[in-house]
Design a protein that fits this description.
Helix 8 (205-213) crosses helix 10 and helix 10 (238-257) packs across helix 11. By secondary structure, the protein is of the alpha/beta class. The chain is elongated and about 80 Å long. It is built from 15 helices and 19 strands. The strands form four sheets. It has a six-stranded antiparallel barrel.
Length: 486
């Protein structure tokens, strides 16, 4: 199980009795958080009281592969110069928990002993200055540790910290390269590994074809039975469906064998395959793998990371593409889809397996899942490579019910409204350099993406109900200027 270290700051000036109480209170809080937060172990660490113990605690957290984050709490006053070396050692996401052992002040009994012991308001500011001075990116959560809203904030921090840890160990397989002549889906794979930990490598499509050809008839029949139990098979071309069954089996074998969490393909490099993987890729996304079409490794990685971040939450997360608009005045809407690859996690009705001509790529008609999309508040997120830095763009959107049936559109789709309005939201996305490929999630919020951007030191542009185009352009100009000055 992954761990989150709980480190408490204090000092020697108040004596051993005070330090014993600090330790006891810290154990109580760590234990309480353990009971309330699933999926990780909150690990109490001995109180740090000087530079040596601070360095030891931070180095231990950094060197523990199972540690995904550190929570620090200043119970008393903790002189912050002693934190300098330790914080310089620390390479894990940091949460400054500004809390107290007591919820209420004991007005009738409070004395200087109580004041000296319970100094979060004092010690937290001393410590906070040093973290700011060192430029360490962190989250600050303020409130009593037993309050439900505080616990929820800690849970969300841990979700993002887990995603950061996942990112640092993410392997991405590219079957083929980037789509020819396309710009925004490309990027610096070496810089991606330096900054985020993504190990992105090219694999010839023949590596996958060999696995496809090794799939047995029995395996295909078992997979077809699984399809029949989950979906409505709305085609007589079962051979095309069986072909996708082979692709799914082969893809999963390849990805598991190489410990890959995400992959890409491109319709321009399918030598040896009869179809573009459609149903197969939809199924792989439903299993939690990240995907990016046309060699879009950044979206593939972001897809996998956001799925990891959303684990345990209600909602849908997956690869998407802005395709076309309904420009009806006052009721504008975006139609999101792709040639084939939309995760069935977005299905609002029972998906149908259908086979249709693709019209691009020159291959046989591929099988795919067709369905209408879910409704609800969501974020649409993309990552772009600006040459001297990466930028995340996060739009707050509302997924809406499809206004009318689309009987001749043989792909899965979702529809959404932009904020603050269609014209502003679309223009803001374009000014920011936003990609046509995104990851859409009804499970995550703008604040989740904001925290991920902060903990990975990634530039972020948010488009929401407060967006003003003039202000946004000023911000983008300032970001460009700052990047040039670095």
């Amino acid at each position: 199980m992954k761990k989150v270290y709980f480190i408490t700051g204090s000092q020697d000036l108040y004596g051993e009795e005070c330090l014993r109480q600090v330790a006891e209170d810290s154990k109580v809080i760590a234990s309480y958080l353990n009971d309330k937060i699933d999926g990780v172990e909150i690990v109490y660490q001995s109180t740090v009281r000087d530079e040596a113990s601070c360095v030891e605690a931070c180095a231990k957290a950094t060197n523990d592969a199972d540690c995904i984050a550190v929570i620090t709490w200043m119970h008393t006053f903790s002189p912050a110069k002693m934190w300098i070396k330790g914080l310089q050692f620390l390479k894990k996401p940091l949460l400054h928990f500004h809390t107290q052992a007591n919820e209420k002040l004991p007005y009738d009994e409070i004395d200087m002993d109580f004041m000296n012991l319970n100094q979060t308001a004092h010690g937290g500011r001393e410590y906070g200055f040093m973290v700011t001075r060192l430029g360490v990116k962190r989250e600050v959560i303020v409130g009593y540790y037993q309050h439900e809203d505080v616990i929820e904030k800690i849970k969300k921090f841990i979700d993002v910290a887990r995603a950061v840890d996942f990112s640092k160990n993410l392997n991405v397989a590219m079957f083929g390269s980037n789509m020819r002549e396309v710009s925004v889906t490309d990027g610096d794979r070496v810089e991606s590994q330096i900054k985020y930990g993504w190990n992105v490598n090219y694999y010839g499509i023949g590596d996958l074809v060999a696995l496809v050809n090794a799939v047995t008839d029995k395996e295909v029949e078992d997979k077809m039975a699984e399809y029949a139990s989950l979906y409505e098979i709305n085609t007589t071309d079962l051979d095309a469906v069986k072909e996708q069954a082979k692709y799914e089996i082969a893809l999963e074998r390849f990805l598991k064998a190489g410990n890959f969490g995400a992959y890409t393909d491109t319709f321009q490099d399918l030598h040896g395959l009869k179809q573009l993987p459609g149903l197969a890729t939809q199924r792989m996304m439903a299993k939690g793998y990240g995907f990016g079409a046309e060699g879009d490794y950044k979206t593939s990685a972001l897809n996998a990371i956001m799925v990891e971040m959303a684990k345990g939450r209600k909602g849908s997360t997956g690869f998407m593409e802005d395709y076309t608009y309904d420009f009806t005045k006052g009721d504008e809407v975006v139609l999101g889809a792709h040639m084939l690859e939309v995760s069935p996690d977005f299905a609002s009705n029972k998906p149908k397996i259908e086979v249709h001509q693709l019209g691009i790529g020159g291959k046989e008609p591929p099988a795919r899942l067709v369905f209408d999309g879910v409704e609800g508040d969501a974020v649409a997120v993309c990552m772009i490579d600006l040459g001297n830095r990466f930028r995340l763009i996060c739009a707050s959107v509302e997924l809406v019910k499809q206004p009318k049936a689309m009987p001749k559109l043989p792909v899965a789709r979702i529809m959404w409204k932009l904020k603050p309005d269609h014209a502003t939201g679309a223009a803001a996305w374009i000014y920011a350099g936003g990609a046509h490929h995104t990851v859409v999630s009804t499970a995550l919020s703008v604040e989740d993406i904001r925290l991920f951007a902060k903990l990975t030191d990634t530039e972020l542009v948010v488009i929401d109900e407060k967006t003003n185009l003039a202000d946004l352009q000023d911000k983008l100009d300032m970001l460009d200027l700052l990047a040039k000055l670095k």
